Amino acid sequence: MxxxxxxxxxxxxxxxxxxxxxxxxxxxxxLVIEALKLNGLDTIYGLPGIPITDLTRMAxxxxxxxxxxxxxxxxxxxxAAAGFLTGKPGICLTVSAPGFLNGLTALANATTNCxxxxxxxxxSEREIVDLQQGDxxxxxxxxxxxxxxxxxxxxxxxxxxxxxxxRAIRAAVSGRPGGVYLDLPAKLFAQTMEAEAGKRSLIExxxxxxxxxxxxxxxQRALDLLKGAKKPxxxxxxxxxxxxxxxxxxxFVEKTGIPYLPMSMAKGLLPDTHDQSASAARSYVLQxxxxxxxxxxxxxxxxxxxxGKTWGGPEKGAARQFIQIDIAPTEIDSNVAIAxxxxxxxxxxxxxxVAGLGSNWQxxxxxxxxxxxxxxxxxxxxMAETLAKRPSPxxxxxxxxxxxxxxxxxxxxxxxxxxxxxxxxxxxxxxMYEPRKRLDVGTWGIMGIGMGFSVAAAVTTxxxxxxxxxxxxxxxSGMEVETICRYDLPVCVIVFNNNGVYRGTDKNASGGAxxxxxxxxxxxxxxxxxxxxxxxxxxxTTADELDRALKEAVASxxxxxxxxxxxxxxxxxxxxxxSLNPQTAAAKKQ
Length: 590
Hints:
This protein is of the alpha/beta class. It has three domains: 25-201, Rossmann fold; 216-372, Rossmann fold; 389-589, Rossmann fold (3-Layer(aba) Sandwich). The protein contains 24 helices and 19 strands. Helix 18 (421-429) links the parallel strand 14 and strand 15 (438-440). The radius of gyration is 28 Å and the shape is globular. The N and C termini lie far apart (114 Å).
């Protein structure tokens, strides 16, 4: 016996029955945007193109500020500088393959300099990349990025976007900061999910860079070592500036009475005119100090690895002892023995040292501080005589004396500096008065950071920016003056124009028609480039003309480029790192 199950047509809904609401959804584009907003990341530096053009449009529509550049490397440099200035990871957004590679230079530089930055790049689909089927701009970007940054992640599913961005944020700012790569394949953006579930999938990162408290015994060991020092020195690195522990650092310096020496991007943590500043006696204090406290500074090539002639040679080097404050224990003993490592975040470590000083702390012997004061007075007097001169054409010193006066009048202005001689002279001539007001080429000493750093400084702070550029260095990112004009940023670029790399007088040794590799077009008018995009261009041939133009630029806040004509015979081969140029170094020995 069999039975048949009959199906009956469903009854028609009553005319007044409520209609089911369509389910709200959210796509990958908006999940990325909402994840950034949730974590207070409100600015994107990048360059639109496949597959992220729509993301830039949507981000702007949703209230994020999108600063679009002419080249991804400069957008990446801007993101890195923003990270240094704010302590939050700067966001750089690029297209796939070549655009990603352009941004990768900035990402690697950010990691080397310990700047928190996240490079987000669109990419080809995994299944095509893995089979090498020849997709548009096909590249295994995650594999390429991994060796050059602190961490790298790929997100394949919309529901994981929140996790991916949260992990990138934590990796960028926790411990020793650095660059992070986040790979977003093209089809991820179009994926959708139920809106409420999408909202729940996002993560607001809690305490991404928690304090790392130093061990009490390490603090006491450092204090005991300092107590016995006859010629102590505090050396401040850019990590000290990044830490934003300004009050504690100042208290440590002033309560101990120890002379201090700032690395270039640490200038302004205390004013360069402070009585305890030893900048004008740099060579002397490095050679003579018996106990050196490293605060956010590494004993890399910029400090001659803590040994050699810079530090007084083998005999004095053997007797010198170091106290090093660093969040990364693996940095300790990387070049020389560290007698007293203090591991933790700089703010916590310095605060612990201050608390341990007590009321009866003995300041350094007067013969040490007096000898430094004598050296400073002699060197500053000599410098003042040089800066007072007004040669025609301008020297590096006479031009920089104008910038020096402007920064003294406007200590809130941010100085961006790159070049060879332009960088070297500016470091020693232009005094800084406030922290995190000087941005330069950093640990790698690379050229090309100028316009990206300038844009980020202006966007992040709203303060005037003075970019002191060698003519060679400016060439790496000069087209970004259009970006400066497009966003009407208060940036004044000063191009120190001496017609070439180092100087404009080299000759073609073969006698051929081509100019020497280090020589540029003679008497170039870089100011016309700024004028082409609606900014202000000024051609300055004297210090007085430069002074008037700089004052007008800072007062107006208009995008300005001053073509400062420098004596083309001025300049030294390779600046102050001649020893790293084998041919030049060998010639000098002969």
